[in-house]
Amino acid sequence: MKPINQSLLFDTIVNMFDMDKNGMTIQSDAKPDVGAEEVRIDGARILLVEDNEINQEVATEILSNAGAIVEIANNGKEAVDAVASKEFDLVLMDLQMPVMGGYEATKLIRIDRKNMNLPIIAMTAHAMQGVEAECKAAGMNDYVSKPIDTKNLFSTILKWVKQNVASSNLTSVGSTKTGTEGTVEPTLPDRIPGVDIS
């Protein structure tokens, strides 16, 4: 079980900031950064692996406001089961959890070859030297520190999912192709009875 002061500190930090509609946090007497409203991860399927309910609620709201589809796993075992049965674009993995921790869960997830390229980002309150190396040794791609800094969170997520989500959105267009100037052109059929289209 995690020390209660960690949860209280996280909750206090969150309450010190105002959250805009896209989940970016700004001080109440400051203006949002230019381009902050453009931070979108629409349709990104994110598995949030976290046992602390407060952290779950805050992270889910931040991610959902940016357009992500969030599913929660309360521990590493639930995460392993979820990844085995569903497709995700990214996993946010806490390190210390009951039942199964983040390191072990990541190693088990990586056993399945289909998950070798699944981005797994560690969420850690540990600032000790060597934690980053330990995360990478377990198979994690990156990490963010807790309490969560929203800008850093999105910056890290976009490093791993932006291209995947963009590709997914492009493929959903259907039977169309893009011309040299970026215009969408319809795909013609090979034959139309009674009409010469050669």
Automatic annotation (TrEMBL):
Region Disordered, residue ranges: 172-198
Response regulatory domain span: 45-161
Keywords assigned: Kinase, Phosphoprotein, Transferase, Two-component regulatory system
Transmembrane intervals: none
Biological process, per Gene Ontology: phosphorelay signal transduction system
Polar residues biased stretches: 172-181
E.C. numbers: 2.7.13.3
Pfam family membership, one: Response_reg
One Gene Ontology term of the molecular function aspect: protein histidine kinase activity
Nucleus among keywords: no
Classification via PANTHER family: HYBRID SIGNAL TRANSDUCTION HISTIDINE KINASE J (PTHR45339)
Protein name: Sensor histidine kinase RcsC
Organism in which the protein naturally occurs: bioreactor metagenome
Source taxonomy: unclassified sequences, metagenomes, ecological metagenomes
Gene that encodes it: rcsC_235
